[in-house]
Amino acid sequence: MANIKKKTKHRNLRKRGCIYHFRIQWQGQTLKRSLGTTKEAIAVDLRDKYLENLRLYGQLDVPEEEKNQEDMTFLEVVKMWVPIHKDEVKYSTWRDYRSAMNCYLLPAFKDRPIKDISYMEIKKFRKNLKVSRKRANNIMVPMKSVFEMAHIEGFIKDNVMKKIKRAKEEKPDIHPFSEKEIKQILSSIDSWYCYYTMLAFYTGLRGGELNGLRWIDYKPKMPNGPELSVRNNYVYGKDGKPKTKSSIRKVECLPEAEYALLKQKALTGGSEYIFLTKDGNRMTPDHFREIAWKPALTKAEIEYRPPIQTRHTFATMMLSRGEEIGWVKNMMGHSSLQMIYQRYYSWIPKKSKAGKDGLNDEEIKRLESMFVEQDNQEQENEGEEKDVEAQAGEQYFSGSKDNKIGSGTKVVPNNEGWEP
User: Fold this and answer.
1) Which of 19, 24, 330, 351 could form a disulfide with 322 if both were Cys (CB 3.0 to 4.6 A apart)?
2) Residues sharing a CB contact under 8 Å with residue 305, sequence separation 6 or more, in sequence order
3) Which residues of the chain form CATH 1.10.443.10?
4) What's the alpha-carbon Rg for the chain, to the nearest Å?
5) What is the distance of C-alpha 169 from the center of its chain?
6) Which residue has the higher pLDDT, 382 or 61?
7) Position 246 pLDDT exceeds 50
């Protein structure tokens, strides 16, 4: 008897991965629909709804003329919102919206009539999210957009999302490296990635900006010295515009940055892009972190800090040297001085400005001394490194073409259930 009940309960339901799907033979046709949920109870309710629609209307969905717009569910509004809004934002932003929808918003509100979702319900939902406040605020962004469209279309009379204020975010963890630690890291990191790391420390560029740099973006002979044009951002396997309008900028090359680019030219000068992986693929944050950064910090016996700390290190180092706050703001691509004051106040300012006369023989000698230890070890470790590289390739990559990390990468759910 128990088996018969279970079979009836799961009638017309199938699981593909962790997502439930509805499937039925109807009048000589196979009708199927992704239910976009991992929860059995929700899947059963949706199955029953589709069966009722078939009985009443001969199709899975309620005909438009039969719909009461006041009873539109959150999911139904989302499906209308997707094709309109998708092309209005950058690919990386849309990817984040999709993750927010599939992981958090749809499981909570999918089948709720949008007009019935209350202010207190949304506040409780955000409070119970097991994420940082910054992430919680980002999750609410696509929800605000959906409610705004629903209000304009007349599906709701009161847009409760207008009353939801941003949660106060925690201050970012700023734990810069000392100049001694920078030297230790550069001496410990795989030689292929040392100039990438050096440029990160001495320009403050974001990871996507570094990975999007092309050789045509480097201008070694400009009136005020060498500079980089930051106008491309490589994120999630796609090239696009930088994060904000102020992120499109000219970055002065300090002697360390100029030296790093001079040395990098010998490695990838024949390529369009300044930085590539050892196997010739585009550089990604995951690849750099797992293959180069983590092993270097372990070898240097430095407590782990994420690569974003190279950006914080640049800001604090420049401010401590006495650089003008406005100059630091422009170098980092911020739109106002407020963020510099809020984040880096403790480092403002201490010493006189660093020189900008470019590279000379003495400067090159000083910079090359940073890699003496590494150079001495390279020949001894050459055979060992090849074995390590082969193992790393098997461990982290599913194929050289896609250059996908096989571990340590968050999996973003697919778009089943809400995006065509």
Assistant:
1) 351
2) 175, 177, 297
3) 179-376+387-396
4) 27
5) 18
6) 61
7) yes
Residues forming a β-bridge with 24:
31
Predicted confidence (pLDDT) per residue in 247-264, tens digit: 899 999 999 999 999 999
Start and end residues for every CATH 1.10.150.130 domain found in the chain: 70-163
Residues 6 or more apart in contact with residue 66 via CB below 8 angstroms: 57
Helical H segments across 62-206, by residue range: 74-85, 91-100, 106-109, 119-127, 133-153, 179-188, 194-203
Pair 184, 302: CB distance under 8 Å: yes
CB within 8 A of 251, min separation 6: which ones? 203, 205, 227, 228, 229, 230, 331
Distance, in Å, from the CA atom of 206 to the CA atom of 242, rounded to the nearest integer, reads 9
Contact 270, 153 (CB under 8 A): no
342 or 105, greater pLDDT: 105
Mean pLDDT (whole number) for 5-34: 84
3-state secondary structure of 220: coil
The full DSSP string for 221-284 is: S-TTS-EEEE--EEETTEEE--SSGGGSEEEE--HHHHHHHHHHHHHHTTSSBS-B-TTSPBP-
143 vs 216: CA distance, rounded Å: 40
Taking domain 70-163, whether its CATH number is 1.10.150.130 is answered by yes
- Dihedral over alpha carbons 14, 16, 20, 21 (to 10 degrees): -60
**DSSP-assigned letter for residue 170:** P
Q: Which of 162-166, 343-347, 349-353, 370-374 has the highest mean pLDDT?
A: 162-166
Q: Could you give the 3-state DSSP secondary structure of residue 114? A: helix
Predicted TM-score (pTM) of this structure: 0.59
**Could you tell me which CATH class the domain 179-376+387-396 is placed in?**
mainly alpha
Tell me the C-alpha distance between 43 and 36, whole Å.
Answer: 8
The single-letter code of the amino acid at 281 is N
304 phi/psi in degrees, rounded to 5: -65, 135
Please enumerate in sequence order all residues whose Cβ is within 8 A of that of 1, keeping only pairs 6 or more positions apart, or say none.
none
